[in-house]
Amino acid sequence: MTRIAGMAGNRGRNLLNIADRQPGGAELAVVLTNSEDAPVLEAAAERGIPTEVVPQGDLSRSEHEEAVLEVLSEYEFDLVCLDGYMRILSDTFLEEAPTTLNVHPSLLPAFPGMDAWGDALETGVSVTGCTVHVVTDATDGDGEVIESEVDGGPIVTQEPIPVYEGDDAESLKERVLYEGEFRAYPRAVKWFAEGSVEVDTAAGEVSVDTDVATTDGDDHDGLPGRRFVSDDRLDTLRYGENPHQDAAVYADYTCDEASVIHADQLNEGAKALSYNNYNDADGALNLIKEFDEPAAAVIKHTNPAGCATADSLAEAYEKALSTDPMSAFGGIVALNRECDAETAEQIIDSFKEVVVAPGYSEDALEVLFEKDNLRVLDVGELGERTERFTEKPLVGGRLVQERDLQSISVDDLEVVTDREPTDEELESMTFAWQTLKHVKSNGILFADGTETVGIGMGQVSRVDAVRLAAMKADEHAEGKDAEGAVMASDAFFPFPDGLEEAAEAGIEAVVQPGGSVNDDDVIEAANEHDIAMAFTGQRSFRHD
After folding, report:
1. CB-based burial of residue 4 (10 Å sphere; 0-12 exposed, 13-18 middle, 19+ buried)?
2. Which has the closest alpha carbon to 9: 29, 34, 42, 31?
3. Residue among 347, 323, 349, 324 nearest 334 (CA)
4. What's the whole-model pTM score?
5. Residue 104 is among the residues annotated as catalytic for this protein
6. Which of 104, 133, 476, 529 is an active site residue?
7. pLDDT-derived band of residue 410, with 50, 70 and 90 as boundaries?
8. Considering 153, 207, 225, 504, which has the largest number of Cβ atoms within 10 A of its Cβ?
9. Which residue in 297, 254, 306, 250 sits closest to 278, CA to CA?
10. Has residue 196 got a pLDDT over 60?
């Protein structure tokens, strides 16, 4: 356990925050101040933390530091954390004590000294922040302060904070404290507690090693110990998911991948995209990026209502729409080719909110612009998928993971049943798997060739997801049904009941991850119904 000697001159809010959070299991062994009136004394005592007071009085700098060291010698500690201590420390203290850290309310080397907040406002910067650094001697041989060396120690970590129009020193000070220092200081303490930090005082350098791979595979680089993304507000939105929620869209201008955020809305007279439009359009665009052949998808509430590839874009759209035209009403259309007039005529034949494509012919635009409220987005050339991570904000933080960019081929499939899949079924399996990645779990997808037939999404029971896909295929699809189709499941079947439902629906081939303790029973059920089945060896959950 890392034990900390905290030294504060006033309220010591950073020290109390560290005491409450115990980053990396670190605890405060003692809080010392040079003022008997410092509010931190009472707050520390309430937390059961021992406190000490060493007034400066008429003592010289070195004499006072020796007195502090003598008092602290009664305690065991591995790290010293300063918090508004308001005394420049010299080597008299620093050479005897463990590593000593301080937090300064600016992004050093900018704005050192006593009034970092006022200096930031006076200079007119748009971003300031805080810095946690190792404390080094900033005095001369006589104990006099060398101003140019104050706050000059090697930096451990920093946290940027925006400066808003209308900020004054007090509002900026509070935001830097609560949004900057309360993040950065515990982070630095955690790194020290975990042994991730090396301080080279002679070289004036700090190195931090906190990146740990999440898997043992050579194809994974792990995730960074700290993730900071700076986005600029692109626009405010009418509302969020619901009218009572405020919302805005922020843009990352370093992103090179085709995206709906950076797309041009070609019919400028139409209303702007809503929160839900952005979310659904992003899901639709990500789906059609999966395919090299002409592809079309219709998305509703981030789930595919239909998807298909074909020799032409118009044919792909027709097949995608016919999967579930009722659910496609008010949906989002995504295309992976320049939209032509023939495809545009089909799109406007029923109500759609948004169409996303990497370009449009002049004839297509003339057709699409007939619908006043159909938003037409041009994302430009699709190119490569370059963004590595996806994020999900949670209350108090966020989940970050690598994007699911898995892509399977026929050679990746392990046939586990007596009946071998036909070449057509194998092609359907790979198409269904690439599409299923974009269906909310538990997800089941029926496909015929390279078009969807029925989709069961977001069910808490995999059997119910099969039933839903069968119902969609039999009741909602136009010109196709589940008879003879291929079924894809985003995770293994824990019991044979899912296969039984599929057989009853007319499914003749199945692709699934495999890996259940009951795989043998599931395979036996498939054999009994003369269903061909292949394992991918990897699942494809999508919970967002």
Report:
1. buried
2. 34
3. 347
4. 0.78
5. yes
6. 104
7. very high
8. 153
9. 250
10. yes
